[in-house]
Model the fold of this input.
Amino acid sequence: MAVSKSEFDTLKKENLSARIVTTRRDEITGVEVRVKGVNSAGSLRRECWFTVFLDVEAIRSEYIPDAYIKEPGLGSIQRANILQPEFCEKLGKAYPIICWGHGTKNGFDGIWRDLKPYERSLLGLFNLLKELLNS
Done:
């Protein structure tokens, strides 16, 4: 199950930059958001804006949705939890992808997996994204 328009509207109240990118029938399968975060290397920490595509087609799944960094480009990213580009089928292009900490006890992946399916929401995913990009 993907995201409904009303669920998207709830996110839009929190993030005015949110926009629908891909749909299937009456459901939203991909959303783009801009998030202010930290781009860091060692002790050098600087704020920057990230444009992120969230593949939310299976948002109620126990697996946290993929999040692709559209901006800044890979050469400007200095974060251990943003990995080499992977192909995003919905966008038809490869983008750096966020590592949610798959398989780690305390990773964002584990937090998502512990939620009940009805608790796995677009706004919840957005809040985890903000937390990750600001840590």
